[in-house]
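A.,

Following up on our hallway conversation. Structure tokens first:
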């Protein structure tokens, strides 16, 4: 069964997601980022290029020829992906086919537009027999 983890308390959802992805890349964790909105994917792509002063977090968009070689893949659809270890959801809905992943991570900020749909997703997972975990990530 997929492990579901909510990281809550972020001031900025995308900035916190980028930091978490940087930590994931450092530990060689393969992650698919579900970003159904093009604007979200573009902003995250920019953050991953610029967040570290000494480099960038290795990643690719799902339609890139480099996606198969990248530890982090940003996708607007979850049809064909190079790996299925961890899924980071940056959408407001339950990601389609999330159960094929070993782990699902949700980053939640305090903004109502992010927090309220996240509550619904938490309830959705729990009602279907998953045991969502929560961890505070503070003001990241």
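Then the amino acids I'd put at each of the 140 positions:
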């Amino acid at each position: 069964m997929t492990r579901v983890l909510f990281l809550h308390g972020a001031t900025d959802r995308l900035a916190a997601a980028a930091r978490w992805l940087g930590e994931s890349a450092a530990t060689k964790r393969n992650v698919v980022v579900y970003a159904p909105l093009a604007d979200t994917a573009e902003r995250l792509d920019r953050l991953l290029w610029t967040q570290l002063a000494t480099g960038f977090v290795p990643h690719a968009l799902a339609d890139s020829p480099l996606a198969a070689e990248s530890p982090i893949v940003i996708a607007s659809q979850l049809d064909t992906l190079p790996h299925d270890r961890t899924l980071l959801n940056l959408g407001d809905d339950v990601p389609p086919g999330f159960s094929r992943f070993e782990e699902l991570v949700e980053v939640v900020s305090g903004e109502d537009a992010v927090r309220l749909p996240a509550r619904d997703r938490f309830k959705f997972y729990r009602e279907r027999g998953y045991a969502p975990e929560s961890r505070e990530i503070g003001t990241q």
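Residues 112-127 form the longest helix (16 residues). Curious whether your intuition agrees with the design.

B.
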